[in-house]
Amino acid sequence: MVGAAGTTVGAGTASLLRRAEAPVPAAVVALGTGAAWTGLAVLTPAWTAFVLAALAVPLIAADLRHRRLPDVLTLPAYPLLVAVAPDPAKALGAAAVFGGAHLVVHLVAPHAMGAGDVKLAGALGAALGSVGWAALPVATVLAAFVTAVLAAIRRWRNGVPHGPGLLAAATALVLIRPG
Predict the structure, then answer these.
(1) Confidence band of 129 (pLDDT split at 50, 70, 90)
(2) C-beta separation of 115 from 106 below 8 A
(3) Largest CA distance in the chain
(4) Residue 178: what pLDDT?
(5) How far apart are CA 5 and CA 149, in angstroms?
(6) Neighbouring C-beta atoms of residue 59, cutoff 10 Å
(7) CA distance 59 to 56
(8) Backbone φ, ψ for residue 130 (5° rounding)
(9) Per the UniProt record, which residue ranges are transmembrane (predicted)?
């Protein structure tokens, strides 16, 4: 049942990305989200993990394929992740801190990080707030590590996508210590 719901959510997010001119393989995203939700149903009751999976599968696909993290998914992530947070005030604070730190990097070195990464970082900060304040620097290091691995395994024309690292780090930390 949970897997079927995840598959439906994945099909919907793939459809949104197609309309946002960042098409991803719909079957892969739908089945990937369904599989993620099935696994999460066994691992954790935390709603934050389910929302992250619903965002991670399509956004990783979009960033790897198009080097874009479309607003159609990054902007709704804010209210979704704050709504499922155990402490919404802490989630908003963590979103401001994590997003703000990424904004500073973007302003100092715009070619190092795109605006989509900044918007996504803010939303993911809300999820990381449910883990605790220490999760913010840990997520930064984990995300940088994943991005470095992506850089090492493939040559990227227009810079290495950072969204997959951000999403992997936030999801891993929420799974390790759900709120």
Answers:
(1) very high
(2) yes
(3) 46
(4) 61
(5) 32
(6) 29
(7) 5
(8) -75, -20
(9) 35-57, 91-109, 121-153
pLDDT band, very low/low/confident/very high, at 27 (cuts 50, 70, 90): very high
Amino acid 114: pLDDT? 92
How many Cβ atoms from other residues are within 10 Å of residue 81's Cβ? 30
Residues 78, 123: Cα–Cα separation, whole Å:
5
Q: Hey, CA dihedral for 50, 51, 53, 57, is it positive or negative?
A: positive
Q: Helices marked H in the chain — which ranges?
A: 2-19, 26-43, 47-66, 71-84, 88-108, 115-129, 135-153, 163-176
Tell me if the pTM is above 0.90. yes
Residue 139 and residue 132 in contact, taking contact as beta carbons nearer than 8 Å: no
Judge contact between 135 and 142, C-beta under 8 A. Answer: no
- Are 173 and 130 contacting, i.e. CB atoms less than 8 angstroms apart? no
Mean pLDDT over 68-87 rounds to 96
From CA 145, how far away is CA 126, in angstroms rounded?
21
What pLDDT is recorded for position 179? 55
* Domain ranges, residue 159: 2-176
Question: What does the block give as tokens for 71?
Answer: 């607003």
Count structural domains, the chain.
1
